[in-house]
Design brief:
This protein has helices at about 25, 55-65, 80-95, 125-135, 140-145, 145-165, 190-195, 215, 220-235; strands spanning about 5-10, 30-35, 70-75, 100-105, 175-180, 205-210. The protein is of the alpha/beta class and about 240 residues long. It has a six-stranded parallel sheet. The protein is globular and about 50 Å long. The mean pLDDT is about 90.
């Protein structure tokens, strides 16, 4: 019997934890999906947004400390990938239990985030353009004034959160690092490939057909790859053999 693993799933910019709820139904029972809700959205709507990266990382690690005491892994899409990286670094710096693996999806490597241009605060037109360009937002959200307002507020706050991120020299991620990306995502291959610089003993990179939200079109393939990477971490531990990208 495969040991149970808690998979903490971090959302992309502007999104809530609901983007991962379906995964609870489609993963095998030994993968316990725990969607992470960020302040200011979903069930935490009444809370203010947090726009300082290090503060949010420390907050999330404290909030999910119980889950992170056991056998767990971190998965993050886009902004969520950067948060997963920050949480892994925070656990190492504070001596906390490390994840079995870190999985980053559609997320530029931390070292390739310098100089990114984000829409100015309150520039709804630019935020809307970003939502349309990336895809993945249902048309019903655009058609509902209240929903699109909530989405734009969260997206703008999350962009300011990204702006507060400061890359720092590091010895790399001390756990197996698995990266997933869409071939048509405009992030660019070089910024994805740069995750290798953060990797320790175990690193993989899987490409899928599609854009920034490739996993919605290729869900079965993506979830099979996530499952395979988690099984690998369970059998070989945090310091297994290197795997070619």
């Amino acid at each position: 019997m495969t040991p149970a693993v808690t998979l903490l799933c971090l959302p992309c910019a502007g999104a809530s934890a609901t983007m991962y709820l379906r995964w609870r139904r489609v993963f095998p029972a030994w993968i316990r999906v725990e969607p992470v809700e960020l302040p200011g959205r979903g069930l935490r709507m009444a809370e203010p947004f947090m726009e300082d990266f290090d503060s949010l990382v420390a907050h999330l690690c404290a909030l999910h400390a119980r889950a992170m005491q056991g056998r767990y892994a971190l998965f993050g899409h886009s902004l969520g990938g950067l948060l997963a990286y920050g949480m892994t670094r925070h656990q190492r710096a504070t001596g906390g239990p490390l994840p079995l693996a870190m999985l980053a999806s559609a997320s530029p490597a931390p070292s390739r985030r310098r100089g990114e241009a984000y829409p100015a605060k309150g520039d709804d037109r630019a935020l809307l353009a970003d939502l349309h360009r990336q895809g993945g937002t249902p048309q019903a959200v655009f058609d509902d004034p209240e929903l699109i307002r909530l989405t734009l507020d969260a997206l703008g706050s999350d962009y300011r959160l990204c702006e507060s991120f400061a890359p720092a020299p590091s010895p790399g991620v001390p756990v197996p690092l698995h990266v997933f990306a869409g071939r048509d995502d405009d992030i660019g291959e070089a910024r994805i490939q740069a995750w290798r610089e953060e990797a320790g003993d175990v690193y993989t990179l899987d490409w899928f057909e599609g854009g920034h939200f490739y996993f919605r079109e290729r869900e079965a393939e993506v979830l099979a790859a996530v499952r395979q990477r988690l099984e690998l971490s369970l059998t070989e531990g945090r310091h297994g053999r290197p795997i070619p990208a």
